[in-house]
Amino acid sequence: MLIDSTYPKSFASDNHAGVHPDVLEAITAANHGDAPAYGGDRWTSVFEDKIKEVFGPGAEGFAVLNGAGANMVGLALMLGRYDAIICPDSAHIATHEAGAAERLLGVKLMTVPTEQGKLRPADIEARLGGIGNPHESQPTVVSISQATELGTCYSPEEIADLASAAHAAGLRLHVDGARLANAAAHFGCDLKAITTDAGVDVFSFGGTKNGALAAEAVVVLDPSLTDAVPFLRRQSLQLASKMRFISAQLSALLTDDLWRRNAAHANQMAVRLAEGIADVPGVSLAQPVQSNAVFATLPSAITETLRRRYLFHPWDEATGVVRWMTAFDTTPEHVDDFLDDIRKAAASL
């Protein structure tokens, strides 16, 4: 799809945003002479040390190229040939990765209808009845998205409860952390509080949606799993030859809390947008605003008018729900201009 460059601002995805200047500077700094390939460079060593600094000395970080790849590598570590993943029905691995888990990992997704996209301990317990039955796939991993695909966030306590329920049943907990930074910024906590301290086994740390060019990390907290990562990363086509340029981006985000500053700003712009539509007739919030996503219900006429000037995605055409995303480079002026056009569209009905 060709995008008209006259669009004033995209609210379709944080993937539409550019690259943070500090990240670009880090890439440029790494572009100096030759360096060993496939992670044998000093930039990757710095990244690995920063992962331990942020997530704890037992954390092992592995740089990869994209979010779906990070999920496949992280999940593959914990799955066997007849296993299954318990996840919300809205999870990214169930809705927006083209069946990658089923195709590449050869496992079943046991999806669970959820409220606001969030799995509960009882949802795990309800899927355990087939354990030991050779006629059924065996749940081995619980996977959640943080933030969820509906923009809501799991608190540290909620994740700890899920980890306890999973571990009590002999399962491991995986977190798709494409927007992990936004969740931590929402709760005002550090990244460790919603991962290591909460009992997560494996998670991804997203960079691309938070100011990187193309960089994610698989972070392993269970030491029994780390030896397999290099092989699975290679098999999953996620081992970058010029790894230094991927690692440099992640290190930049993990330096001086750049990850937090970017995510907090994106979240604040989402709140600004949500508060701005509160008095617009016919427009209402469809989900709580806890990250950088705003889900709103609009009359179709308003949606059609706005989409002539702005990029954003209809989420549920039957109910009129749309999704608006903000990013680290969304400005108050971008939001206010959008709000002005929303009000004009509503007034014209």
Summarize this, please?
Helix content is 37%, strand content 16%. The protein is an alpha/beta fold and 349 residues long.
Oligomer: single chain
CATH level 1 class label of the largest domain: Alpha Beta
Computed CA radius of gyration, to the nearest angstrom: 20 Å
Q: What is the beta-strand fraction?
A: 15-25%
The strand line-up of the biggest sheet is 1-7-6-5-4-2-3
Helix content: 25-40%
User: What is the number of strand segments?
Assistant: 11
Order of helices and strands: HHEHEHHEHEHEHEEHHHEEHEEH
Tally of contiguous helical segments: 13
Structural class: alpha/beta
Distance between the termini: 30 Å
Characterization of this structure:
There is one protein chain. The chain has 349 residues and is of the alpha/beta class. The protein folds into 2 domains: 21-256, Type I PLP-dependent aspartate aminotransferase-like (Major domain) (Aspartate Aminotransferase, domain 2, 3-Layer(aba) Sandwich); 259-347, Aspartate Aminotransferase, domain 1, CATH 3.90.1150.10. The protein has helices spanning 21-30, 42-55, 67-76, 92-95, 100-105, 121-125, 156-168, 180-187, 229-235, 243-253, 258-276, 300-306, 332-347; strands spanning 60-64, 83-88, 108-112, 138-145, 172-176, 202-206, 216-220, 284-285, 293-297, 313-316, 321-325. Strands 1-7-6-5-4-2-3 form a 7-stranded mixed sheet. Helix 1 (21-30) packs antiparallel against helix 10 (243-253) and helix 2 runs parallel beside helix 10 (243-253). The longest helix is centred in the last third of the chain and has 19 residues, at 258-276. It is globular. 50% of the residues are buried. The model has no long low-confidence stretch (mean pLDDT 96). Residues 11-296 form the Aromatic amino acid beta-eliminating lyase/threonine aldolase domain. Keywords: Aminotransferase, Pyridoxal phosphate, Transferase. GO terms for molecular function: lyase activity; transaminase activity.
